[in-house]
Amino acid sequence: MMVPGSSHSRIRRALSLPPRVLVRKVAGKIRNRRDDRKCRLQDLKTCTRSAAGILPIHRRVLKMDDLDLSRIKPEVAQYLADMYLNHRFDLLGSGWVENSYDGRAPGLEGYRYSMNLEIDRFDPEGFWLRQILLPPHLESGRKIWQGVSDAYTPIDWQKDYKSGYRWSARRWYKDQSGDLPGVDIKVPWELARMQHLPQMALFCAILPEFREELLKEFCNQVLDFIATNPPRMGVNWVCTMDVAIRAANILLAYDLFRQLDEGGEVIDCRFRQVVSNAVYEHGVHIVNNLEWSEKLANNHYLANIVGLLFVAVYLDRSDDIDRWLAFSVQEIISEVKRQFYCDGGNFESSTSYHRLGTEMAAFATALVLGLDDDKKRALRDYDCDQWSRWPRLKTPDEQEYNVDLKALFPDWYIERLYRAGRLTLDLTKPTGEVPQIGDNDSGRLFRLSPNGSFMSTDHAKGKYRNLAQYTGREIRAWDENCINHQTLLSAISGLFDSFEPDRFRDRFLLERSVIRNIAGGKCFSVNFRSDCELTSTSTNAMTQMQTLSHRQEGILRPSRQGTIPLTSDLKLYGYPDSGFFIFASKRIHMTICAAPNGQNGLGGHAHNDKLSFELNLDGEDIVVDPGTYLYTPLVDWRNRFRSVRAHNTVVVAGQEQNRWTPGRRGLFSLNDETAIEVLDLSETGIVLQLTYRDIIHIRQFEIACDYVRICDYANHAFEVNLNPGEMYSGGYGKIVRGFR
Predict the structure, then answer these.
(1) Spatial distance between the Cα atoms of 730 and 425, rounded to a whole number of angstroms
(2) How far apart are CA 162 and CA 189, in angstroms?
């Protein structure tokens, strides 16, 4: 999620642009404000739903019978299905809370708002929607609502059900506010991504006794959302990224549920038409609200075009849809080049955003590989003359894709995507989790395989500080593991015939089968060097260290003596562009962060974690990164978790490595003040130098037979931080109780 920078930084960036670009941007701003005023007035006075003659979606991308559901345990499927049927969701650290118009919010760090709507009766005719919608949107909303089952109780899609704050579908999407302490706009966005719907479809196949109930619930929830969220009204149209992810999830769930509805008794013609119209409206919204910038397009824009791709693939061909399809493929290729380094790492400087970006690229790549002949013709025959927005749509002759080739994508693209998967594999610790470097907002494109574990509710409340006000009385709770990225490894293995992560091959099989299915059985062959091992190098590191006046040394040992040395079969995996250096053997896994600020220096999702590290010895986490916890609800918490004092590095002269603008304006940027250089590299160690302003910090890592030695040198006095887990957030909104 991005928040604009300060007015001074915006002026500084503007003045750095070439005059031609600056004039174009200023003219664009003026035009956009004029268009916004016109669109706002129209949307508040007339129905915003599309009157286009969209044909009902009939295309199938997935075959339910070909999916490998063998690793989803029936008890997990039944638990989650029951929660979804009762409109209870555990999102962003909420715990399993029911979301309804009269539900009581648990609160966030003591902040709770009472903004429930008092609705006496949810009548089948939909007159209750008068309290939700403006009069121009009421008639169409009522017609859609009348398809909902009588016994269904609606979800309050406008509410942050953690804090209780409520946005309004009676306000235009660009006029939404809510910058109050404890209020998190990500909560309604996260629920409205509809990522639980494809899971519900999978559970139908696992739990045939729940099939009819889940089918009806799918239809009810989709109709509920569409009826109460007219296009461009309310909080759930603010962020195009979430609109795009929602479109992809509705389409995937719709595809699967249709195959489970024998005879079409639940998913009838009326429902199919409503969904098809809504999907088209999502596509229109994405195209008209692209989160693109000439200087910086990030994971939001990548999500935009991936969602648009799903819309364009599922909808029947037309001039507009053909352009959407060609533009999506064009921009996916372009953004993989812009957002992924040559070594495969994502430019966000975050392991969790690397997972999100790679996941989006993987599913999009499979979708393009699986295009039928009719859709492939659209990639040749589209007319780009009617494309009037920016980025421009290239002509067919300018495109980097080649429809005549089996692979379709350029070679560099295939290699970069493979290396992105290899990075996740190399980052994965023996625990199955990855180190948290940079931000972690628990973001995903799809959540298909349940990935977590059961714990008693009492244990969960005792473990997580964020569940202090949780009132659930169930005996056990399902706890999602947000830093286990093995589902991504499964997905990547579906794209590449030689990507076989032996350590985790049997853990998750569903994503592999989904990718293979979407791609029509096609996959890539790896004909380039696949490993990322580094060779030894040496400079005058010792001389440089001796010039620094302050020094400290630390030794970290395993909790028990091993029978083989830590150095046995030790390998160093280096990703120099991304700034990740990973030492791994049978007994040790250590990830060292030498990452740049990311986002071309903006640092929107980076932390002050330079020369920080995570260490796992004999399968036990010894030193961990603290994670993220929150973004906008509480500014101080956001800054504490990205500060240098939160990370396993040193604090020199009490200063931050990269400074930030105070207040909400600075939440998603860091001043780009750091530079890192590799001074020495060997099979058992590495020496890195960090400089910022007048500060020089050199850190030496050495792996010996039975310990890890870390020596720090600096030109100013410093303190060493090590976090064994007291300050820890394993996913957005989660925080363990040990930290105050």
Answers:
(1) 19
(2) 13
Paired residues of 590 in beta bridges: 583, 615
CA–CA dist 333, 325 (Å, integer): 13
| 328/44 Cα distance (integer angstroms) | 31
| Tokens read off for 105 | 């919010």
Give CA–CA dist 44/37, Å, rounded.
Answer: 11
Short-list 241, 329, 315, CA closest to 281: 315
Please tell me the distance from the alpha carbon of residue 304 to that of residue 286, in angstroms, as a whole number. 6
How far from chain centre, in Å, is Cα 160? Answer: 19
* Predicted pLDDT at 18: 80
Nearest to 618 by CA among 578, 648, 592, 590: 590
98 — phi, psi (to 5°)? -75, 135
Residue entry with tokens 């910086």: 296
Under 8 Å between Cβ of 614 and 591: yes
Q: Is the peptide bond before 435 cis (omega within 30 degrees of 0)?
A: no
Domains and CATH numbers, the chain: 290-301+312-437+487-527 (no CATH), 537-720 (2.70.98.70)
Q: How many CB atoms lie within 10 A of CB 356?
A: 23
Identify the residue whose tokens are 């207040």.
663
Average pLDDT of each block of 10 consecutive residues along the chain (740 residues)?
45 68 78 93 96 90 97 97 98 97 96 96 98 98 98 98 98 95 98 98 96 98 98 98 98 98 92 97 98 93 98 97 98 98 98 98 98 97 94 97 94 97 96 97 98 96 93 93 96 88 72 97 84 62 90 95 93 97 97 97 97 97 96 97 97 96 96 97 96 97 97 97 89 82
The values of phi and psi at residue 63, to 5°, are -120, 115
Query: Residue 5: its pLDDT value, please?
Result: 41
Which pLDDT score is estimated for 52? 74
pLDDT, residue 141, reads 98
pLDDT reported for residue 263: 86
For residue 61, what are the contacts with CB-CB under 8 A and spacing of at least 6?
A: 252, 255, 313, 314, 367, 370, 517, 518
With beta carbons less than 8 A apart as the criterion, state whether 60 and 259 touch. yes
Burial of 543 from C-beta contacts in 10 A (0-12 / 13-18 / 19+): exposed
Structure tokens at 556: 């970290």
CA distance 598 to 438: 10
What gap in Å lies between CA 419 and CA 110, rounded to an integer?
Answer: 44
Do residues 612 and 676 lie in contact, with contact meaning Cβ atoms separated by under 8 Å? no
**The pair of three-digit structure tokens given for residue 651, joined into one six-digit string:** 């604090």
Rounded Cα gap, residues 564 and 587, in angstroms: 8
- DSSP letter string, 443-468: --S---S--EEEEEHHHHHHHBGGGT
How far is it, in rounded angstroms, from Cα 342 to Cα 319?
A: 35
> 609-620: buried (b, 16+ CB within 10 Å) or exposed (e) per residue?
bbbbbbbbbbee
Query: What does each C-alpha distance from 92 to 108, 569, 729 come to in angstroms?
Result: 11, 39, 11
**Burial bucket for residue 28 (CB in 10 Å: 0-12, 13-18, 19+):** exposed
Q: What is the DSSP string of 349-385?
A: S-HHHHHHHHHHHHHHHHHHHT--HHHHHHHHH--GG
d(CA 349, CA 263): 49
How many other CB atoms are there within 10 angstroms of residue 55's CB atom? 13
Residues 6 or more apart in contact with residue 686 via CB below 8 angstroms: 572, 581, 592, 678, 680, 700, 701
**What does the pLDDT read at residue 294?**
86
What is the Cα–Cα distance from 140 to 50, expressed in whole angstroms? 10
